[in-house]
């Protein structure tokens, strides 16, 4: 798993005086600030023992010159799983209980150990000189060497370590400060997008046990860490579910894009109905692209494997990781502890939660309304189809009205086609977007829960300390780490929240603007039809009038 | 009115066919509901002026409708709607109108008038009344006769009915019609005193004639088929139109929900709030615009309904012809058989079986005197029969001629009116589209400002 280093507080506006790291931090800082605020502020808000040394960022293998750029990218990585070396070390023991997070931290811890040797000159002395982190990093060093799980991660990191060579840098890794600024902003500019994914060609597979659909996924990329520039794989819905699960584990307080529902809500019997498959395909396409566009998730290792691995590779990769039982245990504990977390939820998250609840209500209503409109339009279309032909029928018994009746019939038919077009426009532009945000709102509630749960861990330890329940010696340290964990989780969420909100506003705005556009176009077409009918009638009338004149 | 109105008993007087004047001779459908909105009856007025019935141009309007309660024939309380009929005479010179008559009538009185006209003018395609009960109703439309929208549309329909009669070259001269407009009390008694109900052909007779007639004028047979087709196709069209209207209503109204939700959502949005709120307002406007649109369309439907009911009036004329023709054929048949009888008696040959012949054979020949007497009776009957046949023939031909003239007039009217109606439908659609464009353009602007 790619590390998730934290931004040192030096990168946030508060702590400019981070000492020896200043030169690097300063550069990074200015760059970070040049980018959109969310990224700059991602990271622990306060300096403290839990802060990760600058090193781990370099660790992710961007190498010297690319450091800042790499930093920038990593800076975008969420605080969700505390990459903080110290925290990771402390938490390593609890890796199992906290689920995957611990492993991630462990691997980060490992990774944080390495750069001390690898990077040259960019990362002065591990995290040791980082304010306040001395003690914990020493501990980290010690513990890191004991851990040997997740061979994959190790491999990944060693591979990354090898990418110190400038030549193998992806073209997205410029070295000049100017390009580094661009680098930070690249997510905003589609021209600099380096990962293109399409989902298409649904195919049915029949085995003795089951029938299922796979989708072809084509990835085109210019990124260095990908072995090739083009990949083609086939995945089924289960695989997407797996990916989503992994992303949620890795980044509990990041807003992971939603997957289309497992089953159709309206109790559809035929799972493989064409419309259903097409809707799902489009949603899956969106899902992967959203991940690709996400500053942190795009570098997720499972994501990369998902996009590139052959079927057997994926299955074997999937088999690693915590078993079902541990995940279940996690869920139970999560539910139990999240309640505690709610009590001490900071104000801004209370606001966020309120927003999420209201938003969820409203978007669900809008989804229902939009679906209903589609249904009504469809029924209107069905009735209208019958309406035109009656006029043709009528014209058969009327000698003098044949022409006008036929004209009216053709006008109605043309309006009918316009209605059909409007309907399909609605289905394309509005319905999927609104529905995606319905799913997003559920996601958000999950994110809030996970955040609360993280907070709950802290709170329970604090409680324990207060009442001197358990080992009072270890508690303060654990609490310290937990506090940092909470801090980072909160910051990650806050930053991602801003990003999500921005995207939501844009998407909603676009979707509704498109809907309005469809309707305008529909009415314009109908208007033209009837106006030309009227003109032709007027002309006819004038002709007749002039004929009548002696 | 100074001139004595003509005798209503006068039937089948061929009326000189007057040109109907302007095509919009007060027969357009969606008459403005304002009290002063009575249309000039244009050509009807011209006709009447020419025919000295009413010296001046007349404006007729059904200007108001009122709920009344009263006691019906069975002395039970009932609620009904009464309609105010106002008649104005228009001075030629300055166009000012003076209210000459104003009275209240209820629907049943209109029915009475029409039934009377049907009896006394069987060769005329008598204008139909607006529907008694609301048909082709779509879900938002009330089927209740007391519903104000229905009453309003009926008011317009009744006005239209009167205007059609007033502009008909023949019907406008009818005394009972004149009294309908002018004599408030006792009009019903006056009508009944004409005894028209007795003169009405029995339905059974008419049905019988329809089945048994051998040689009806082909044009009437064709006309009957045409009227059946017309009725069937317009019914179908109205039914589908009602369903389309229903669906359209649904589409528009659901958008209104957006308004509410957007407004609630805008409360939690800082940047998007204003845009959402104002877009929501436009969605409300859009949703409420359908009410007027569909109301206008109901008037269009009413125009078509009139011709749906006209189909029945056409069939009535055809039935009358069949009846007369059948009558004629029976009379001719009768005459032929009498002549044959006479011949048999005279020549003594019995060519056909007759009961008289049988009894004669069984019970003995009759005396020459008896036979002579019988022959004489028969000859008288034959003479009478021949006279009758002649007059029936004449009547029949007159009827066909006059009826066909009126049918031609009707066809012209129908073509004009239906064209106008279809064009007005297009105009309505255009207006609806323009409204739609405006609302959605406004909404789009709000969305883009979000």
Question: Can you tell me about this structure?
Answer:
The complex is a heterodimer of chains A (550) and B (450). Chain A has 550 residues and is mostly helical. Among the domains of chain A are: 195-323, Phox-like domain (PX Domain, 2-Layer Sandwich); 347-548, Arfaptin homology (AH) domain/BAR domain (Substrate Binding Domain Of Dnak, Chain:A, Domain 2, Up-down Bundle), CATH 1.20.1270. Helices cover 63% and strands 5% of the residues of chain A. Chain A has 19 helices and 3 strands. In chain A, strands 1-2-3 form a 3-stranded antiparallel β-sheet. In chain A, helix 5 (85-92) crosses helix 19 and helix 16 (347-395) packs antiparallel against helix 17. Chain A is elongated and about 115 Å long. Mean pLDDT of chain A is 69; it is low at 1-175 and 178-187. Chain B is mainly α. Helix content of chain B is 64%, strand content 9%. A 3-stranded antiparallel β-sheet of chain B has the order 1-2-3. In chain B, a hairpin with a 6-residue loop joins strand 2 (77-90) and strand 3 (97-106). In chain B, helix 9 packs antiparallel against helix 11. The model of chain B is unreliable at 1-55 (pLDDT under 50). The chains are: A mainly alpha (550), B mainly alpha (450). Chain A: Its main location: membrane. Chain A: One of its GO terms (biological process) is piecemeal microautophagy of the nucleus.
């Amino acid at each position: 798993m790619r590390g998730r280093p934290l931004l040192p507080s030096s990168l946030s506006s508060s702590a400019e005086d981070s000492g020896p790291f200043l030169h690097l931090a300063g550069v990074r800082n200015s760059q970070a600030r040049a980018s959109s605020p969310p990224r700059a502020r991602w990271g622990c808000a306060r300096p403290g023992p839990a802060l990760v040394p600058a090193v781990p960022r370099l660790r992710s293998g961007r190498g010297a010159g690319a450091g800042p750029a790499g930093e920038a990218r990593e800076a975008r990585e969420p605080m969700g799983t505390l990459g903080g070396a110290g925290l990771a070390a402390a938490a390593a023991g609890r890796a199992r209980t906290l689920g995957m997070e611990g492993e991630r931290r462990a691997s980060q811890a490992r990774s944080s150990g390495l750069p001390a040797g690898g990077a040259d000159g960019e990362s002065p002395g591990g995290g040791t000189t980082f304010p306040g982190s001395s003690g914990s990093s020493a501990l980290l060093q010690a513990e890191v060497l004991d851990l040997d799980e997740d061979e994959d991660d190790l491999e990944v990191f060693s591979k990354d370590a090898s990418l110190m060579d400038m030549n193998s840098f992806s073209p997205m890794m410029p070295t000049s400060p100017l390009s580094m600024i661009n680098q930070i902003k690249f997510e905003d500019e589609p021209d600099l997008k380096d990962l293109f994914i399409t989902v298409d060609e649904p195919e049915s597979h029949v085995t003795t046990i089951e029938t299922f659909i796979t989708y072809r996924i084509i990835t085109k990329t210019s990124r260095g860490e990908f072995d090739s520039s083009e990949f083609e794989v086939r995945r089924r819905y289960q695989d997407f579910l797996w990916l989503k699960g992994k992303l949620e584990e890795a980044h509990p307080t990041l807003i992971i894009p939603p997957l289309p529902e497992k089953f159709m809500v309206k109790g559809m019997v035929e799972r493989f109905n064409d419309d259903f498959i097409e809707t799902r395909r489009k949603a899956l396409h969106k899902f992967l692209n959203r991940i690709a566009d996400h500053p942190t998730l795009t570098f997720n290792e499972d994501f990369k494997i998902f996009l590139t691995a052959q079927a057997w590779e994926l299955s074997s990769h999937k088999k690693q990781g915590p078993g079902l039982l541990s995940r279940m245990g996690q869920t139970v504990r999560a539910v139990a502890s999240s309640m505690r977390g709610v009590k001490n939820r900071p104000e801004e998250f209370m606001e966020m939660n309120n927003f999420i609840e209201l938003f969820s209500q409203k978007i669900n209503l809008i989804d229902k309304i939009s679906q209903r409109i589609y249904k009504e339009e469809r029924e209107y279309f069905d009735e209208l189809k019958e309406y035109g032909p009656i006029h043709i029928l009528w014209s058969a018994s009327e000698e003098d009205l044949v022409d006008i009746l036929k004209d009216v019939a053709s006008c109605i038919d043309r309006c009918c086609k316009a209605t059909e077009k409007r309907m399909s426009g609605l289905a394309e532009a509005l319905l999927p977007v609104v529905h995606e945000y319905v799913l997003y709102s559920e996601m958000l509630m999950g994110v809030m829960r996970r955040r609360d749960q993280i907070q709950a861990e802290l709170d329970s330890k604090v409680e324990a300390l207060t009442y001197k329940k358990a080992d009072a010696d270890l508690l303060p340290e654990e609490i310290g780490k937990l506090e940092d964990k909470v801090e980072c989780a909160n910051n990650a969420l806050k930053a991602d929240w801003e990003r999500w909100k921005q995207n939501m506003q844009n998407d909603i705005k676009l979707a509704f603007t498109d809907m309005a556009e469809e309707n305008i176009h529909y009415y314009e077409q109908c208007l033209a039809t009837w106006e030309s009918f009227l003109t032709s009638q007027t002309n006819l009338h004038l002709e007749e009038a002039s004929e009548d004149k002696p | 009115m100074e001139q004595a109105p003509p005798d209503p008993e006068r039937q089948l007087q061929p009326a000189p066919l007057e040109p109907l004047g302007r095509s919009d001779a007060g027969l357009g459908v969606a008459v403005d509901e304002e009290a002063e909105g009575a249309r000039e009856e244009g050509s009807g007025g011209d006709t009447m002026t020419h025919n000295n019935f009413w010296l001046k141009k007349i404006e007729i309007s059904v200007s108001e409708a009122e709920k009344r309660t009263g006691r019906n024939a069975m002395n039970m309380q009932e609620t009904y709607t009464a309609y105010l009929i106002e008649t104005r005479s228009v001075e030629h010179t300055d166009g000012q109108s003076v209210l000459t008559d104003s009275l209240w009538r209820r629907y049943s009185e209109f029915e009475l008038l029409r039934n009377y006209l049907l009896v006394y003018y069987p060769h005329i395609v008598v204008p139909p009344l607006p529907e008694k009960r609301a048909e082709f109703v779509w879900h938002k439309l009330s089927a209740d006769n007391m519903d104000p929208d229905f009453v309003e549309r009926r008011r317009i329909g009744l006005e239209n009915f009167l205007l059609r009669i007033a502009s008909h070259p023949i019907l406008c001269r009818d005394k009972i019609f004149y009294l309908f407009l002018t004599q408030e009390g006792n009009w019903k008694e006056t009508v009944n005193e004409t005894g028209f109900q007795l003169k009405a052909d029995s339905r059974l007779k008419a049905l019988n004639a329809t089945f048994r007639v051998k040689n009806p004028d082909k044009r009437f047979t064709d006309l009957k088929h045409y009227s059946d087709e017309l009725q069937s196709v317009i019914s179908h069209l109205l039914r589908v139109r009602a369903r389309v209207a229903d669906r359209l209503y649904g589409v528009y109204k659901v958008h209104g929900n957006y308004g509410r939700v957007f407004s609630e959502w805008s409360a939690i949005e800082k940047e998007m709030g204003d845009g959402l709120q104002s877009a929501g307002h436009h969605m409300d406007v859009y949703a409420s615009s359908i009410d007027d649109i569909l109301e206008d369309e109901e008037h269009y439907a009413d125009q078509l309904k009139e011709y749906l009911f006209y189909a029945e009036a056409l069939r009535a004329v055809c039935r009358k012809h069949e009846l007369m023709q059948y009558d004629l054929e029976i009379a001719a048949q009768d005459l032929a058989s009498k002549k044959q009888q006479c011949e048999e008696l005279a020549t003594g040959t019995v060519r056909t079986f007759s009961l008289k012949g049988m009894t004669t054979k069984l019970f003995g020949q009759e005396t020459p005197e008896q036979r002579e007497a019988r022959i004489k009776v028969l000859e008288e009957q034959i003479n009478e029969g021949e006279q009758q046949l002649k007059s029936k023939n004449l009547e029949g031909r007159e009827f066909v001629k006059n009826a066909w003239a009126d049918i031609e007039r009707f066809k012209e009217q129908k073509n004009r009116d239906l064209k106008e109606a279809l064009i007005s439908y297009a105009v309505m659609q255009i207006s609806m589209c323009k409204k739609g464009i405006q609302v959605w353009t406004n909404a789009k602007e709000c969305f883009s400002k979000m």
